[in-house]
């Protein structure tokens, strides 16, 4: 039986290193946005380069950060997403101001084919969940952050 390895990183992915305020309010935790949040705790924000320094051989990136997905997919380090074979992406156009179409077009330009995984019907949050698969997967060792 193959050994399954994973690493959970308690960080908010962003286009720049930041400390993201968060809230302990359970009633609003389902729609917390790092773009509009405030609260007593702080979560470290990391760039894609920072993230790649923390892991070996990344395979999957799951982004559900209530709006920061647009910063990552459209940001200055977007080319580094090529090290992932799969990206699970939850869009938040009401928080980010960026349409699903723009994110999907950018993802396609990076060599990913994205398919709708689940349609969300919450008018407070908007957006959908997509599974994006790399059409030209590049081993992370070739692009490892230095």
Explain this structure to me?
- The chain has helices at residues 48-54, 68-74, 93-96, 100-109, 140-143; strands at 12-13, 18-22, 41-46, 60-63, 86-90, 112-119, 128-134.
- With 146 residues, it is of the alpha/beta class.
- The chain has one domain (12-143).
- The strands form two sheets. Strands 4-5-7-6 form a four-stranded mixed beta sheet, covered by helices on one side. Strands 1-3-2 form a three-stranded mixed beta sheet.
- The protein is globular.
- The model is unreliable at 140-146 (pLDDT under 50).
Supply the key terms.
single chain; 146 residues; alpha/beta; 4-stranded mixed sheet; 3-stranded mixed sheet; 5 helices; 22% helix; globular; disordered C terminus
């Amino acid at each position: 039986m193959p050994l399954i390895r994973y690493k959970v990183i308690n960080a908010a992915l962003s286009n720049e290193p930041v400390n993201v305020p968060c809230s302990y309010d359970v009633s609003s935790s389902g729609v917390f946005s790092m773009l509009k949040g405030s609260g007593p705790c702080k979560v470290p924000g990391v760039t894609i380069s920072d993230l790649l320094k923390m892991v070996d051989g990344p395979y999957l990136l799951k982004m559900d950060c209530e709006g920061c997905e647009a910063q990552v997919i459209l940001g200055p380090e977007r080319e580094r997403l090529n090290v992932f074979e799969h990206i699970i992406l939850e869009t938040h156009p009401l928080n980010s101001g960026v349409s699903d179409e723009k994110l999907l077009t950018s993802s396609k330009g990076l060599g990913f084919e994205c398919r709708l995984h689940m349609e969300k019907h919450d008018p407070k949050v908007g957006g959908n969940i997509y599974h994006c698969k790399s059409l030209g997967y590049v081993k992370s060792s070739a692009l490892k952050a230095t």
